[in-house]
Amino acid sequence: MGNIRPITDVWILARPKLKAGKKWYGAYPAGFPERGRALLGASLESSVLHVCGGMARFYAYSRGFGPNDKTLDLDPATRPDFLCDVRKPWPTCEKWRFILADPAYSETDQAKYKVGVKAYPRPIEIQRQADLHLEVGGRFGILHYDWIRPLPNWRNVALISVYMGYGNRSRTFSVHEKVSESENRL
Length: 186
Known about the structure:
Strand content: 25-35%
Strand order of the largest sheet: 1-7-8-6-5-2-3-4
Helix content: 10-25%
Radius of gyration: 15 Å
Shape: globular
Number of helices: 4
């Protein structure tokens, strides 16, 4: 395990586009879900749980949100499949092979959402809940301002810098794979 090096890259993506001209602060950058799926190892037919991604189903391009994908979000206006605070136990009892998280990146960003700054989920809170629902061998990806440290039973798979043009703050896409206890000891 110690000899495995994560994939690193830089992506320059376009501003978000949603179906029917919808506008939503914090929507996936154009081109991100397709590339994120590839690093997760998820085909379009795979089932991906989009955490803090209630608007993912409105992504404008056909290869970003699959027919078996589900969403989990706190804001009922996003019409998520699972309505809940990601910091608390998730209402789905399913184990997922692929989880993709795109939370607010800071309290300042969180304040722009209707649910408000008090609902800001720290990445570690999302990771802990995701770990309970992630299969061994499954992958978790999170888009954030910070490089997210993997949990002890996860390994780094990819670290990608994501830009959306001049004057925009860089984001980091961290991808981790959950390993078995025996792999974790290696």
